[in-house]
Amino acid sequence: MNTQEALEIPQQRTANEPQDFPEPAPLASHGPARIIAMVNQKGGVGKTTSSINLGAALAAYGRKMLLVDFDPQGALSVGLGLNPYELDISIYNLLMNPRLDPHEVIVETEFDNIDILPANIDLSAAEVQLVGEVAREQVLARALSKVADEYDVILIDCQPSLGLLTVNALTAAHGVVIPLETEFFALRGVALLVETIEKVQDRLNPSLEVDGILATMFDSRTLHSKEVMSRVTEAFGDKVFETVINRTVKFPDASVAAEPITSFAPKHAGSEAYRRLARELIARGGAP
C-alpha cells in the first residue's frame, strides 16, 4: 500500500466513539443568517478547505449559504471556480463604497444554495485604507446586514492574520470556528487567537461566541497528532468538535477541480466528515 492510499483509509468507528448526529430537518423559510467567521492567524490549517466544504455540506442540507472570501489571496474564490484576476468588482469595492449594493458583488456559483462574495489582491489595500475610517471595525458588518435576511448561514473565510480585516469579520460574526491543524506549533497560536476573540467580545461584539475548534489534517497513524488532539481536548473541553477532519490527498484534488469534496468525491470519507460536521454544527445550535 502506498502513502497516498494509506492516508485515505477512513477511520473505523469503535464502540466508544460517539453516535452520529441526526439528519437536520428542512427549513420552512430562509434567513436571517447566522454569521460564522472561520479564523486562525496561522496559515495552512484548512480554513479555506473547511469554509468550502462545510458550506457545501450545509447547502446540501437545504441551508442557503453565502461564502465570503475575506483573504486577498482569493483562495475561496478559486476553490469555487472563479478567477480572481478577472473580477471587475469584489468585496474590496463593497468595503470601500458604503452605497454599493452587495447584490452587485455577490456571484451565484454553479453549486446549489451557494453564493459567494469574491476577493482578490485588491483586498490587501483595504486594511490600510480603513484605518482612518470612523467605526472601521464594523464596515463588513454593515455590508452583510443588507443581505443577511436572504441567507441561512454566512461563512467568512478569513486571512491568516489578526489584523483589521479579521477584526471586521469577528465584529460581524455571531460565532467563530477555529480550524486547528493537529500539530504542536499550530496549537501554540490558539491562545493568542482566543485572547483576540475575547477583546472583540469585550469591546466590539459582546454576542460573539466560539462555536468550536475543528481538528484538521489529523493523521491517526502518528503519535504526534494524537498527543496534540489530546492536549486540545484537555484545554478546550466540549468546545472541540467531535468531528475530526483527517488528512487526505482528495482535498487538494478537489481544490484543483474547483469543487467541494462533497461533489468531487461524494462517497469519500472526507465528504462524510464535512457532512457530519454540518450536522454537528446544526445540533450544537451553530447553524439553523
Jot down its keywords.
288 residues; single chain; Rossmann fold; 13% strand; 7 strands; globular; seven-stranded mixed beta sheet; disordered N terminus; alpha/beta
Can you put this structure into words, describing what you see?
With 288 residues, the chain is α/β, with parallel strands linked by helices. The chain has one domain (29-283): Rossmann fold, CATH 3.40.50.300. 39% of the residues lie in helices and 13% in strands. It contains 13 helices and seven strands. It has helices at residues 3-7, 47-60, 75-79, 91-96, 123-129, 139-145, 164-172, 184-188, 190-203, 223-236, 250-256, 261-264, 269-283; strands spanning 34-38, 65-70, 107-108, 114-117, 153-158, 175-181, 209-216. The chain has a seven-stranded mixed sheet, with helices on both faces. α2 crosses α13 (269-283). The longest helix has 15 residues, at 269-283. The radius of gyration is 18 Å and the shape is globular. Residues 1-16 have low confidence and may be disordered. Residues 1-27 are annotated as: Disordered. Residues 1-17 have a biased composition (Polar residues). Residues 34-210 form the AAA domain. Belongs to the ParA family. This is Chromosome partitioning protein.
- The count of domains is 1
CATH architecture: 3-Layer(aba) Sandwich
CA-CA gap between termini: 42 Å
Structural class: alpha/beta
Total number of β-strand segments? Answer: 7
Uncertain parts: 1-16
What spatial form do the alpha-carbon principal axes imply?
globular
Number of DSSP helical runs:
13
The CATH superfamily is: P-loop containing nucleotide triphosphate hydrolases
pLDDT average, as an integer? 90
Strand proportion, as a percent range, falls in 5-15%
Largest sheet: 7 strands, mixed
Spatial order of the strands forming the largest sheet: 3-4-2-5-1-6-7
CATH first level: which class? Alpha Beta
Helix percent reads 25-40%
Order of helices and strands: HEHEHHEEHHEHEHHEHHHH
Kindly report the CATH topology.
Rossmann fold
Radius of gyration from CA coordinates: 18 Å
